[in-house]
Amino acid sequence: MKQITVSAPGKLMLLGEHAVVYGYPCIVAAVNKYLTVTISRSCRGKDRINALEVADFSFVKESLKVFRHEFSIKDFFSLRIKSELGNFGLGTSSAVTVATLKALAEFNHLNLDKKELFNLSYKVIQNVQRLGSGFDLATSIWGGTIYFEGKTKKVESLHQKFLPIMAFFSGQKVKTIEMVEKVAQLKKRNSKFVEDIFRKIAKLVEEGRDTVEGCDWVTLGKLMTQNHLFLTQLQVSTPKLDQLVETAIKAGAYGAKLSGAGGGDCMIALVSRKNKKKVTSAIEKVGGKIIDVATNAQGLRIEL
Ligand code: MEV
Prior knowledge:
Blueprint: E1 4-15, E2 25-41, E3 48-50, H1 58-71, E4 77-83, H2 92-107, H3 114-129, H4 135-142, E5 145-149, E6 155-157, E7 165-169, H5 176-189, H6 191-213, H7 217-233, H8 239-250, E8 255-259, E9 266-270, H9 276-285, E10 289-291, E11 301-303
Parallel strand pairs: 3-4
Antiparallel strand pairs: 1-2, 1-11, 2-4, 2-5, 5-6, 7-9, 7-10, 8-9
The chain binds (R)-mevalonate.
Residues 13, 17-18, 20-21, 132-133, 135, 176, 180, 260-261 line the site of (R)-mevalonate.
C-alpha cells in the first residue's frame, strides 16, 4: 500500500511573540521534537484520522478541506499522526498543519516549495483561528533559527549552530487564541500603550538578531528578560511564569522569558553549561518541569 510520511518540528519563540501578530518581526528556533503524519488512501468513502496524541483535529480537517479545494482532489485519505511535542505549547497546531499538507502534496505528486506550503498552511490557520502570525508554520517548514517578519511573512535563516536554551513547563495551559484575543482587547482599550510596547519589542528583536548570530549570550539573555517584562505589561504572563523567570535568573541564567502566547505553557532560559544543573534544580524546587529539547533542529522532512 502506498503511503507517505512527513515530520515537522516544534518551536520555541526566542523574542517577539504577540508583536509579530501585528506585523513586527520575531526570532524563533525549531526544536528537535517532531510531529509525524503518515498518509495513505482511504477506501471507506471518508477520511480517517488516527491521532491519539493530538487533542484537536480542527487543523487536520481544515488542511484536508483546503488541500482538496485548492487542487480539486476528490479522494479520501487515512492519516496516522504521532507526536513528540506533548502539551507544552511547542506548536502542535502548526506542525500538524504543515506536515499534513506536505504529506498530501507528496502523496498526490505535487511539488510544493517552502513558500507555497507556507501560504497554503497560513490559509488553514486563518480559517481555523482567524488570528495568528504564521511564524510557527515558517519554523516548522524552514527549521533552524529564523528571523520572521510578521508583515511580509519573509523568512531569513540565521547562522546559528548552538543556542544554550533550556525550556520548562509552567504547569498551566491556555489556548493561544485566548491570549491573542486578550492582547487585542487591551489594544482596543489602550492602543498607544500597546503599540509602544510592540515597537520596543521589535527593537529587542533587531538587537537579538546580531546577538544570536554572534553567540553573545550575555546580551541575548538581557534582551530575553526585557522581552519578558514587556510581555508582563501586555498582561500575558502569570505569577507562575514570573516566578520561573526570576528563579532561573537568580540561579545563574543569562536571561529568561515566557515563550509563546503566555497564560502558561513554557518558560525558556539561556543558560551556560556550567549553570545548567543549578538552574534545573532551582526551577524544579518551585514546580517547573524541564522539557527535554534542543534547538537547531532540521525543518520539515519526508521520511523514506
Ligand atoms: C504564540 O506562540 C505566539 C503569538 O505571537 C501568536 C502568533 O504569532 O501567531 C502569541
